Amino acid sequence: MSVHDRFHKSLAFLLSRLRNAVTRHAWLRSLTSQFTRLAAILCLTLPILVPSTIIAEESKEVQGDKQLKEATFGGGCFWCTEAVFQRLKGVEKIVSGYSGGHVVNPTYEQVCGKKTGHVEVIQITYDPSEVTFEKLLIVFFKTHDPTTKNRQGADSGPQYRSVVFYQDEGQKKVTEEVRKKLDDKVFNGKIVTDIDPLLNFYPAEDYHQNYFNDNPGNSYCQGVVASKVRKFIELFGDDAK
């Protein structure tokens, strides 16, 4: 039964009860008549009012067949990590933002000031039927340097620390297993990537979103981000979109 049908059925029931109640009270008949006219107006306007609320929620349920999940990684400048994961099969959406700090809804300038505790991160929405969380982790570890504390290349500061913000115990366990598997076997130094619970996430300013794709002529994009993308293609070409 649709939301409209449920509304109409409930409204009809209320009207019936009200009419029965006023048969012995003439002074309420006028009020009942007015209520009936108001109900008729609501029935006519409901298709206009509801789509932005209840119908929208029903549509989300219908479109939720994919059972999408999220992962949140910090691996240096989010322009780089965003560009890499945008090209991985199974990734539906990426939002660059800030996590791990104590300042509510920080600005980019505040985060760069190194006093907010926040890290530049990307929040990945992915389809687990196409790409696993473990695969996301392997791409994450191999497309940045997880052996340097608070640094990625020339980018230095706590906002660039390597970190996985897990959203449940399952993510925490898999991250610990992958980090242990890769430690000292793939990299020259010890992995210093932190594994922390996700306590907050604040989307970055609009101009940071989809940055590499929108600013291919930017010198940082040409010199740094592009090299990260090339490395991803070299290592994970079969998994690229």
Please outline the helices and strands.
Blueprint (H helix, E strand, L loop, with lengths): L2 H20 L6 H21 L4 H10 L5 E7 L2 H8 L5 E9 L8 H5 L6 E8 L6 H10 L8 E2 L2 E2 L5 E5 L2 H14 L11 E4 L4 E2 L7 H4 L4 H18 L5
Parallel strand pairs: 6-7
Antiparallel strand pairs: 1-3, 1-6, 2-3, 2-8, 4-5
Gist?
The chain is built from nine helices and eight strands. By secondary structure, it is α+β, with helices and mostly antiparallel strands. A six-stranded mixed beta sheet has the order 7-6-1-3-2-8, with helices on one face. Strands 4-5 form a two-stranded antiparallel ribbon.
Verbal overview:
The protein has 241 residues and is α+β, with helices and mostly antiparallel strands. It folds into 2 domains: 3-63; 67-239, 2-Layer Sandwich (Peptide Methionine Sulfoxide Reductase, Chain A). Helices cover 46% and strands 16% of the residues. The protein is built from 9 helices and 8 strands. It has helices spanning 3-22, 29-49, 54-63, 78-85, 108-112, 133-142, 169-182, 211-214, 219-236, and strands at 69-75, 91-99, 119-126, 151-152, 155-156, 162-166, 194-197, 202-203. Strands 7-6-1-3-2-8 form a 6-stranded mixed β-sheet, with helices on one face. Strands 4-5 form a two-stranded antiparallel sheet. Helix 1 (3-22) packs antiparallel against helix 2, helix 4 (78-85) packs parallel to helix 9 and helix 6 (133-142) crosses helix 7 (169-182). It is globular, with a radius of gyration of 27 Å. The protein starts with a helix and ends in a 5-residue tail after the last helix.
